[in-house]
Amino acid sequence: MKEFDIIEHFFQPRSYQRHDVVIGIGDDCAVTNVPEGQHLVTTTDTLLEGVHFPVNTNAGDIAHKAVAVNLSDLAAMGAEPAWINLSLSLPKVDPDWLNDFSKRLQELTEYYSIQLIGGDTVQGPLAVTITAQGFLPKGQALTRSRAKPGDYIYVTGTLGDAALGLQLAMGKKDVQLIHRNYLLKRLNTPTPRVLAGTALRRIAHSCIDISDGVVSDLKHILFASQVGAVLNIDRLPFSEAMQESVSRDDAVRYALAGGDDYELLFTIPEEQKGNLDIVLANCNVSATCIGQLNGYAEKLELKDGDAVYSLEQEGFQHFA
Predict the structure, then answer these.
(1) What domain range is 255 assigned to?
(2) CA-CA distance, 276 to 151, in Å (whole number)?
(3) pTM here?
(4) How many domains does the chain have?
(5) Could you read off the pLDDT of 253-287 as tens digits, one per residue?
(6) Within a domain: residue 171?
(7) What count of other Cβ atoms lies within 10 Å of the Cβ of residue 236?
(8) Where do the H-state alpha helices sit in 49-160?
(9) Residue 320: its pLDDT value, please?
(10) Torsions phi, psi for 290 (to 5 deg)
């Protein structure tokens, strides 16, 4: 099976169809319409076997994660997803693998009302690159650079689950079966907080998604906004699976430096704290306050109660 056969058989007929796509898969370029009064927001992420997902991860989960991490970036900007492009590098043509991959991709395009509008297929090491695009009302982008001293720091969901899931996948940890399934799901099929991102446009000063660990990603906000922060370790939200599977010290380490949670970390001013639950009411997601910003540019202090907390490793970095 050749490149164009793969595209025509597995991808062209299996994508949700949007009315704003004039020309989709099958030509040299896609042609799309951008609604009046909206900005076009674009992000790209590449996932490599053995780096971003364990070797032998099933094809459906690879497709899910590749899409989810890109939609999470859009969510962090407050954008509504619309289109994706797919670049797929395969060591060989495996029809069963391609069928599982494209079926999950189809499910995700339908669930999030996004359309696959183009891409590329090549032979090489297993790698998946997604470019996702979405819409954002002009002047309403959530960024890393607008945080203010006094803002409260919040995170959605629970933290560290994916990092513990990776330890399970690598055979370095073992937990109860009921928790194992949950933790591996958090690693392999993260949930991009798309609705929460669009809702937060109204109240948040800054936002970022947690891909490399809370400390590493919070520091991006501190640098971009030239603010400091006190992060309260004792307020970190943990799942039941985390609490019943590892020590508190391990849970804190996974949350702060593990990465792959794809939750949102955002900051809001004092006057918006009362509105947060209302704004997130229809998003089916909780949010927890874990600290506060101050005027000490780029200084991050970790506190566990009244004690200072020291972290040896901040988070994942390529080429570190």
Answers:
(1) 152-308
(2) 13
(3) 0.93
(4) 2
(5) 999 999 999 999 999 999 999 999 899 988 989 99
(6) yes
(7) 23
(8) 59-77, 95-112
(9) 42
(10) -120, 5
Question: Does 60 map to a domain?
Answer: yes
Task: Please choose, from the candidates 261, 206, 279, 282, the residue with its C-alpha nearest in 3D space to the C-alpha of residue 72.
Answer: 261
Residue type, 256: L
CA distance 228 to 90: 44
Q: Say which CATH number the domain at 183 has.
A: 3.90.650.10
Return the minimum-mean-pLDDT range out of 102-111, 239-248, 309-318.
309-318
- CA distance linking residue 255 with residue 161, whole number of Å: 8
- Strand 80-90 relative to strand 127-137: parallel, antiparallel, unpaired? antiparallel
pLDDT digits (tens, 9 = 90+) for 212-233: 999 999 999 999 999 999 999 9
Q: How far apart are CA 100 and CA 92, in angstroms?
A: 15
Q: Which three-class secondary structure state does DSSP give residue 193?
A: coil
Task: Give strand pairing partners of 252.
Answer: none
3-class SS of residue 188? helix
Alpha-carbon dihedral 171, 174, 179, 184, rounded to 10 degrees: -10
Could you read off the pLDDT of 125-148 as tens digits, one per residue?
Answer: 999 999 999 999 999 999 999 999
137 CA to centre of own chain? 21
Give the per-residue pLDDT at 282.
85
Domain annotation covers residue 215: yes
Cα distances (angstroms) measured from residue 174 to each of 30, 177, 180: 46, 9, 8
Contact call for residues 160 and 242 (beta carbons, < 8 A): yes
Residues 291, 294: Cα–Cα separation, whole Å: 10
